[in-house]
């Protein structure tokens, strides 16, 4: 405790940083100061006070108990394995929930990654991403199969517009009955959504037709089919606001309260408990954003973009440098690879790459023509030269090799539909562009697809001039520590401000310093 009254800015900041102790703002004959010593506060006029608030106290304690973690903080999956085994392992060991980025990864590599994580962590909790793949249902099945083989207890479901049979299979096949007669989900689902109508699918039980189909196929038991009708499809729903990758760019201040109100309304209508927790993602790049999300009622926060430039992220040094130099306005939208035909877009980094503009050209061409053969010769030649850097025939040959291993059904569909074949060829560029970024291929720098939201720029501004400014110092567990400690600090500052206390600017902001 501070035995004397702190008056200097650095001393006031030290008192506020003692998060496990109360802080009193007091006045005496010599002026105003701060203290965490009750004997000092007892002999002065107390102007305001804030209670102890450690980083582990932020958010919903039920989230921490349920997932077996120490903090209400999760690192969301970044596709193509960017959220790597090393990232998952580092965060899990530090008490945070982290999700492996299985989206876009071939099944053999997913198998290897989950093996590595499980061997390193033992029974320590972690999650695996399951991304909705409407054009590649075999991939969803492969990920669920791998998660079941490796006893992965939590799936982070992203980009779903509705429920699918594989997602319901994972959920229902892990149901059991507790001693108190309550249904217990051994297979937990965190749904990442950006629309209320999608969230409603996860707030309700699994559809009966899907459960019957799984029961008939022998994938679940009759008891599990009945139990699945008694609990919602998700245990947690993440409000995904203005994030990198798949996003509707909804403001968090609109989306988060909307989902909380929807959850509470359905609970009232069904006359049941409001058990599904609502978390916040998208734009979480500073401690102030963490504090704001919890103040709005988030049970937990999820970070993504800010982890992509970390040491553990499976990204090239070139890409990490681009991310570390970006600002909040350096992002744009571009057609996605996995939902190209549907016109779905993802948020990517604009600074230092031409990917977004080139991807839009491909989508415009796809909409305009019925197949590769229908594209005028001059336009086709331009695409081959300026985007693909090879003939479209060569690209198609690569597609055949790729889908023969991954999902042969895609090839048979392309044989019947020329437009489908064109989509697969164009998706070749969209799919490989993130790989070029991950590997740091120097001849393809202009084509790097780097999923990124404005939180990256906000983070860069916050850590400028600190040890976290350099990507080589950005370790994910250290980032998480400073985000949560800073979030607790910002919460204390907000409480003092609401009581009319005005602190010097240098004391009002949390600055990350290396941990001892």
Structure notes:
The structure is a single chain. With 516 residues, this protein is α/β, with parallel strands linked by helices. Helix content is 45%, strand content 14%. The chain has helices at residues 9-17, 38-42, 61-67, 85-93, 107-121, 137-149, 165-172, 196-203, 208-216, 222-228, 252-270, 287-295, 317-324, 355-368, 377-388, 392-406, 409-416, 418-439, 455-463, 476-498, 505-508, and strands spanning 23-28, 31-35, 45-50, 73-75, 97-100, 127-131, 154-158, 175-177, 183-185, 188-193, 236-240, 245-246, 277-281, 301-303, 331-335, 345-349. The strands form four sheets. The protein has an eight-stranded parallel β-barrel, surrounded by five helices. Strand 4, helix 4 (85-93) and strand 5 (97-100) form a beta-alpha-beta unit. Helix 14 (355-368) runs antiparallel to helix 18 (418-439). The longest helix has 23 residues, at 476-498. The radius of gyration is 25 Å and the shape is globular. The model has no long low-confidence stretch (mean pLDDT 93).
Q: Termini separation (Å)? A: 19 Å
Helix run count: 21
Q: Biggest sheet, strands in spatial order?
A: 4-5-6-7-10-11-13-14
Give the overall average pLDDT.
93
Strand content bin: 5-15%
* Number of beta strands: 16
Q: Which ranges are low-confidence, i.e. pLDDT below 50, for 5 or more consecutive residues?
A: none
**Any idea what the shape is?**
globular
Helix fraction bin:
40-55%
Structural class: alpha/beta
Biggest β-sheet strands, sense, barrel: 8 strands, parallel, barrel
In angstroms, what is the radius of gyration?
25 Å
What oligomerization state is this entry in?
Answer: single chain
């Amino acid at each position: 405790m501070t035995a004397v009254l702190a008056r200097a800015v650095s001393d006031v900041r030290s008192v506020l940083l003692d998060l496990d102790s109360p802080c009193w703002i007091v006045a005496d004959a010599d002026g105003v100061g701060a203290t965490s010593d009750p004997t000092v506060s007892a002999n002065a006029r107390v102007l305001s006070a804030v209670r102890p608030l450690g980083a582990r106290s932020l958010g919903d304690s039920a989230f921490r108990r349920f997932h077996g973690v120490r903090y209400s903080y999760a690192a969301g999956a970044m596709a193509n394995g960017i959220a790597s085994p090393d990232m998952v392992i580092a965060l899990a060991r530090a008490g945070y929930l982290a999700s492996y980025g299985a989206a876009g990864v071939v099944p053999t590599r997913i198998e290897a990654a989950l093996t590595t994580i499980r061997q390193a962590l033992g029974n320590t909790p972690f999650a695996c991403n399951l991304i909705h793949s409407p054009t590649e249902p075999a991939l969803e099945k492969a990920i669920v199969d791998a998660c079941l083989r490796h006893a992965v207890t939590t799936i982070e479901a992203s980009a779903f517009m509705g429920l699918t049979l594989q997602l319901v299979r994972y959920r229902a096949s892990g149901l059991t009955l507790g001693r108190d007669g309550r249904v217990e989900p051994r297979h937990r689902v965190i749904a990442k959504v950006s629309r209320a109508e999608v969230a409603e699918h996860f707030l309700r039980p699994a559809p009966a037709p899907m459960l019957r189909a799984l029961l008939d196929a022998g994938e679940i038991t009759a008891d599990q089919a009945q139990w699945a009708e008694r609990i919602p499809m998700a245990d947690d729903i993440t409000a995904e606001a203005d994030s990198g990758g798949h996003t509707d760019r909804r403001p968090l201040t609109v989306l988060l309260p909307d989902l909380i109100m929807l959850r509470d309304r359905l609970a009232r209508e069904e006359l049941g408990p409001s058990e599904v927790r609502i978390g916040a993602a998208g734009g979480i790049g500073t401690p102030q954003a963490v504090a704001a999300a919890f103040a709005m009622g988030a049970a937990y926060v999820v970070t993504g973009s800010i982890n992509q430039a970390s040491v553990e992220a499976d990204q090239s040094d070139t890409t990490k440098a681009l991310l570390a130099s970006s600002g909040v306005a350096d992002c744009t939208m571009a057609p996605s690879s996995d939902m190209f035909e549907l016109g779905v877009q993802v948020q990517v980094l604009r600074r230092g790459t031409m990917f977004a503009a080139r991807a839009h050209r491909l989508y415009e061409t796809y909409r305009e023509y019925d197949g590769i053969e229908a594209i005028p010769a001059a336009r086709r030649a331009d695409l081959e030269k300026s985007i693909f850097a090879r003939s479209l025939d060569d690209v198609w040959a690569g597609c055949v090799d790729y889908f023969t291993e991954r999902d042969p059904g895609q090839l048979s569909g392309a044989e019947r539909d020329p437009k489908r074949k064109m989509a697969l060829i164009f998706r070749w560029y969209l799919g490989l562009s993130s790989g070029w970024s991950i590997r740091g291929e120097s001849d393809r720098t202009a084509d790097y697809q780097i999923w990124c939201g404005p939180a990256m720029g906000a983070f860069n501004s916050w850590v400028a001039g600190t040890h976290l400014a350099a990507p080589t110092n950005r370790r994910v567990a250290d980032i998480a520590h400073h985000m949560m400690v800073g979030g607790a600090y910002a919460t204390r500052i907000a409480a003092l401000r609401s009581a009319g206390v005005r602190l010097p600017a240098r004391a009002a902001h949390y600055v990350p310093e290396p941990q001892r």
